[in-house]
Structures are given as structure tokens and as C-alpha cells.
Amino acid sequence: MNTSLYRNFPFYSHKLQDTISVEIALPDGYDGSPNKAYPSIYLLDANYFFDDEPGTLDDYLIRGEGMTKIVRTLAANGKIPSSILIGIGYTEDQRSKFTLENVAGFYKFFIDELIPEIESKYRVSKSGNDRVLFGYSGSAHFSTYAFLNDVYTDVETFNKVISVSGVYFDSLEAYKLEEKVFRRIVNASFSKKSLFIAVGAEDPKVELLNTHRVFTKKMSSRGYADFNLFCTEFPGKGHYDIPEFAFSEGLTWLFAEHG
Asked: What residues have CB less than 8 Å from 253, skipping those under 6 apart?
């Protein structure tokens, strides 16, 4: 990792009443482009995925190059624009509390605290079209919640979301939001939004495959206007070898088709 393009700092959230870790990877050429605003990629579970050091998510987790190198490689190959990667890291207890038990509070943390902080200190675009949110497994529950909450409230926090191997709406609060969204005619709110949602076809956790199928059937059957949806089960991929693969595939799809 080029340490001159790397930042990390503890961030105390008044919304969450807790401290999380924030890591920033700036793109090559950042210092030489003072007038350029970059897309931002918000990476949940950064304590596992940010760089190529081994994480502790699970003994069976197959780490590839890490998300930092993936972003740089895709940008160097012209598959995505040069972007700023923002990693959000936390302990396992915090992960469960933020992404499953308190999804509404975690969403407010992004809206009211983290995004304003990032946009005040780094040259990122302030358009929702240029913000990507990535969530995997437990944090995929939150990334999908954030996407639908944007739709329901007709705002543009994250117009591009990657949600991988999640048990969707694993809380009453999130389930109620899903029902509200699907009861409304919200074509205008889905307009120009893009959701990449995937699971490994070989995932041994049956509930992940089942909830993926139920949720994506709902999303794809409604024909929302100007809504870009990619939902798939990747053959040969299980729960622990899909994160980096889906991250790379998701970013490529989001920016190639809907950049």
C-alpha cells in the first residue's frame, strides 16, 4: 500500500455513542488533481477487507488481494473511474449492533456524520450517483436497508449499492421498511438507482440462498422505471470466497453500465 495515499483515524459518533475506525485510500494522482472530485466507495467491514492483511472474519475466509488493491487495479485498467475508498471498521459486537440491531441509527450515522465529514475533508463528489456502498453477509443487511430507505424517503445518499450474501431484513425494523416500500408506487424514487445483489450458488447457509431468491424476485418482478438491477447466484462460489469477487464484479457493472 502507498502510505502517502492512506489515512486512518478513530471516529466518535454521537448518533451511535461509540467509536469506529475509518480508513481512507486515496487514488493515484490525488495530490496532483486539486480540482477533481472523485467518486466515493464506502466499504463496510473494513477491518477484514480494506487491504491485503489477513482478517479474522472466519478461519475459512479466502482473502485475495484486498479491496484496496482491487479498486486501484480496476481504475488502472479503466474499468472504473479513479475513486476514494472509505473503509468503516468495527468489532464483531459493534458489527452486529450497527448493521443488524440498529440499522436506522447506523443509517443516520452515515447521513448526519460520516458523509459530511468525508466530504468536508476530501475531494469527493457530493452526488449520490457517485457514492457506492458495499455490504457483505451481516453488513449486506444494512446496505440493502440503506438502499430501500433512500427509495422510501426519496433521497440520494447511495444511488449505487452492492449487497452480497445477506440475510435480508433480519430485523423487525428493516422488515417493516421493506413492506412500506413494496406497498407504494415508487417508480420515481427508484429512477437512476443501481443495485447489484449477489450470493454464492454454493453457499452452505441455506437461509442466505432462500432470502436472496425471495428478495430479488420481489425486486425484479415490479418493473420499476429506470431502475438498474443485477441479481445473480455466482456458480462455484461459497460464502467465504465471494466477497472480493463480488466487490470487483459489482464495481465493474455499476460503473460500466451506469457510470
From this structure: 196, 230
151-172 residue pLDDT tens: 989 899 999 999 999 877 666 7
Q: Which domain holds residue 217?
A: 3-258
- Would you say 173 and 180 are in contact if contact means Cβ atoms under 8 Å apart? no
Look at residue 235 and give its three-state secondary structure: coil
Q: What residue type is 227 in one-letter code? A: F
Q: Is 17 exposed, middle or buried (0-12, 13-18, 19+ CB in 10 A)?
A: exposed
Give the chain's domain count.
1
Is the separation of the CB atoms in 204 and 170 below 8 Å? no
pTM above 0.85, yes or no: yes
Task: Look at the block and give the residue holding cell 457530493.
Answer: 126
> What CATH number is associated with residue 187?
3.40.50.1820
